[in-house]
Amino acid sequence: MRIRTAGVVAVLGLALAATGCGSDSSDEPAAKESTKAATGGKLVIWADDKRAAALKPFGEKFGQENGVTVEVQAVSKDLQTNFVTASQQGSGPDVVVGAHDWIGNLVQNGAIDPVQLAAEQKSAFNETAVKAVTFNGQLYGVPYAMENLALIRNTELAPEAPKTIEDLVAAGKKLKAEKKASEILCLQSGQNGDAYHIYPLYSSAGGYLFGTAANGDYDPKDLGVGKPESIAAFQKIAKLGEKGEGALKRSITPENSIATFTGKKCAYLVSGPWAIADAKKANISYDISPVPGFAGGKEAQPFVGVQSFYVAAKGKNKALAQEFVANHVTTPELAVALYNAEPRPPALTAALDQVKGTDPDLAKFQEAGKNGQVLPAIPAMAAIWDPFGKAEAAIIGGADPAKTITAAGKTISGQIK
Amino acid sequence: MSTSLSGPGAATQPPGRGPLRSGSPRKPRTARNHAPITLTGLLVKVVLLGLVAGIAIWAAFPLVEAELWGGLAILLATTAGLFYLYLSPRHIPGKYLIPGTLFLVAFQILPVLYTVSTAFTNFGDGHRGSKDDAIVAIQSGSVKQVPGSIQYPLTVATKGDPATGALVFLVTDPTTNTVSVGDTEGLRQLDAGSVTVAPGGKVTAAEGYQILNFGEASNRSRDITGLVVPTSGGALRSSGLSRAYEGKAIRAYDAGCDCIRDSETGKTWTADDSAGSFVTADGEALAQGWKVNVGLRNFSDVLTDPAISGPFFGTLIWNFAFALGSTGFTFLLGMGIALALHSPRMRGTNFYRVLLILPYAMPSFAMLLVWRDMFNTDFGLINNLFGLGVDWFGETWSARLAVLLVQLWLGYPYMFLVTTGALQAIPRELTEATAVDGASPFQSFRAVTLPLLLVAISPLLIASFAYNFNNFNAVYFVTEGGPFPADNPTAGATDLLITYTYRLAFGAQGAEYGLAAAVSIFIFTIVATVSAISFSRTRKQEEVYS
């Protein structure tokens, strides 16, 4: 009996102790991979769940054709942070797939290398997409898809695309009065705001985030938040807020915005290509048009985001990674395969032309993003999101625009180094 | 807790215990030695020790590869120690204590030490690696294509064995289709007769050279990316395995002045080893920095930076109120229900107990998000159900109330469970005796049940307080710390110190782990002080009642 109890304790204890010892070495997966790689060329790609699934067949094909192993690993959470941490430890992938606004942070952490494309390879891409992945005058990624916001409307409720935001509010109010909809506009804000979704209106009202430096990059020293233009812009936005027209509301959150639209509670939704699947599922007859700006104001410019392939600076097989990214991702086949996995407009002009015919939404989204602004990739952008969003929420809720946005500008400039 | 409970009791016993122990140490030991070694026991021991050895070997390879000899020594010592301990019949107490101690070291002490050591560095985005890493990143990030240069189809080849032979680039001139061989010496044209070129410029065979396929070439990856073939305009480098370009590194590190020079603009950035970055004379820093020790700077930042220390006290007071409120209200409700169900007149207590434990059985993660949506002004269940129009998360006090309500719902089942357990340990005779003495039920509860209950529950209440003091999820998932005053987006009405810190350290321009670690040490000090005071008071209480 005594031995048996001691045995049980020892079992538990040792099993636990074993895990304890194991945790001492944080980089054992790296070692395993490297020993495998020694027997044959191996390329490790990290992407999020959806893209990993789309990349897998293409990766296998690339591997078979070239006699190498391609391993596509899905990282479902915090891909950017995980990539930076892993590559610091030397256990990162060779190629990573992600949004272009990561570039600033990835470069400052020395996690990615520039990609050298020939001029004719570059010209095959949409110009905005190439601009998005260019940082400090260097091309840091190969873009494959673009996305931007547009106005999606329920054509049963709103057959006409509004020319200005004032038209939209008038039409939305009428629908509300007729009890056909309960909200004027579904533009997500939430209690802490959403800088990405409010930006088209902010830009239309004359606001800007960063000025442009001589080399075409955004200049973190020229911060537009807190400047008179931004105050004027938010005074216009405040008029649409809860104390004004009631078109912008904090109760419309990232979680319920699309659902409210597909539930036919609002006729207009400001969202991106990712909302289309839900709209189709809910059998909404919809149409897509550019986000309207203020009457007499500038054009509403949505942010243009680009999904891109990066070569890890500390990858084990950089030559192969460069080969894959610079010479194979630039072919239309992969762009089309990725489009089929998730319908976002391809960045490769040839691929876009190929899929445009079967999917009219793509051209409409592209049209809506034609005048869009490249989402800033500079590290300073990380300091914008939170304070800017909160200022937006406070102003929508009725706070004084001048006071709020000045404070936000001060906070942001305090965080930019 | 257990030591403090047995403390006073043990103090009264030593005279009786001492001789008893010293008189009979032989007997149990010999008995144990002669105890039959069962087959199962032996088998379990073999399997487990085998497992330990296996894990040690598995962990040793990466350590050897990374040349971490210190880590390897610790691994060897630990494994040898474990084998000695469990193979020798002696050191019985050690067999019980060591696994727990190992875990304590691995999962408690090491992370704490790591946090403390991080607090003295500038570790964070842009300052993660070493200075050498930063230099490599700066140099390789500055390689630009020579304007007007051409792109060559590239074939990777070796002289001799593909795995070990000297690496060369075979580049084909796209206009003339002539092939040149490039190595660290430079480019030399090859005789047209000695090479076979496929359409597109790829070389399929070359005399004296071994052409590498992708698989072989990727095994030489490091050599390929490292090979730079000097040319008149710059240098030929590979872009992948099938294309070469003429490029030039614009920025180079100069060890003499410990600085980075830009050959295009002529700018120099000198290394600043106290900040961990390269800076120009006018203070412009390169993005790629490295990790350095900054001494007490993170701590002094916390104390002196008005953006940090300004809202600190307001946040601290709400933080205390939140932790006390979460613990207190859940305890009152949990205890109330436990008392109600403890009454002998109550029917169907098991059914009620199952129902009451349900909130505890659901993942709090999901529940917090569900509650957040239920408090939505226009679409939330709470406003719709009661016909209210309260802007729950928009006003300071309604947001605080909402957070506490969510905590109450999530937390009372735990208090109900522990109180039920403690109540069952209090003999009913005691309360019956008070009834005989003529006490009202409330008097009997006040004078007998509650004090006895508190003796058992107090340590749990303190633990719950300490947990709620840092209950990040409860605030972050529900309100994200909001609402925020219009003039300050950094400190919200429901912010706890931990959510506030999180925003400070990770919300700004990249993550600042050093600062975050320093603030965590401050928070740790606060929680530890509060807990220490509470425990010492509890101990006094225990002495009174036991």
Instruction: Calculate Rg of chain A over CA atoms.
Output: 24 Å
First-residue to last-residue Cα separation of chain A? 67 Å
Tally of helical runs of chain B: 21
Mean pLDDT of chain B: 84
What is the overall silhouette of chain B? elongated
Q: What's the count of strands of chain A? A: 14
Provide the residue-averaged pLDDT of chain A: 85
Distance between the termini of chain B: 14 Å
Largest sheet features of chain A? 7 strands, mixed
As a percent range, the share of helical residues of chain A equals 40-55%
Task: Describe the fold and architecture.
The complex is a heterodimer of chains A (417) and B (546). Chain A is 46% helix and 15% strand. Chain A is α+β, with helices and mostly antiparallel strands. In chain A, strands 1, 2, 3, 4, 7, 13 and 14 form a seven-stranded mixed beta sheet that branches. Chain A starts with a helix and ends with a helix. Chain B has helices spanning 2-11, 14-23, 26-34, 39-65, 69-87, 92-119, 131-141, 214-219, 221-226, 297-304, 306-309, 312-342, 349-361, 364-374, 381-386, 396-425, 428-436, 441-469, 472-476, 497-506, 513-545; strands at residues 143-145, 152-159, 166-172, 179-183, 186-189, 195-197, 203-206, 210-211, 229-230, 235-238, 243-249, 251-254, 259-262, 268-272, 277-279. Mean pLDDT of chain B is 84; it is low at 1-31. Classes of the chains: A alpha+beta (417), B alpha+beta (546).
List the helices and strands and how they pair.
The complex is a heterodimer of chains A (417) and B (546).
Chain A: H1 2-22, H2 28-37, E1 42-47, H3 49-66, E2 69-74, H4 79-89, E3 95-99, H5 103-108, E4 112-113, H6 119-123, H7 127-132, E5 134-135, E6 138-139, E7 142-148, E8 150-154, H8 165-177, H9 195-204, E9 210-212, E10 218-223, H10 228-240, H11 257-262, E11 268-271, H12 276-281, E12 286-289, E13 303-312, H13 318-327, H14 332-341, H15 349-356, H16 360-368, E14 373-374, H17 382-396, H18 401-415
Parallel strand pairs in A: 1-2, 1-3, 13-14
Antiparallel strand pairs in A: 3-13, 4-13, 5-6, 7-13, 8-11, 8-12, 9-10
Helix pairs in contact in A: 3-14, 9-10, 10-18, 14-15, 17-18
Chain B: H1 2-11, H2 14-23, H3 26-34, H4 39-65, H5 69-87, H6 92-119, H7 131-141, E1 143-145, E2 152-159, E3 166-172, E4 179-183, E5 186-189, E6 195-197, E7 203-206, E8 210-211, H8 214-219, H9 221-226, E9 229-230, E10 235-238, E11 243-249, E12 251-254, E13 259-262, E14 268-272, E15 277-279, H10 297-304, H11 306-309, H12 312-342, H13 349-361, H14 364-374, H15 381-386, H16 396-425, H17 428-436, H18 441-469, H19 472-476, H20 497-506, H21 513-545
Antiparallel strand pairs in B: 1-11, 2-3, 2-8, 2-11, 3-4, 4-5, 6-7, 9-10, 10-11, 12-13, 13-14, 14-15
Helix pairs in contact in B: 4-5, 6-21, 10-21, 12-16, 12-18, 13-16, 16-18, 17-18, 18-21, 20-21
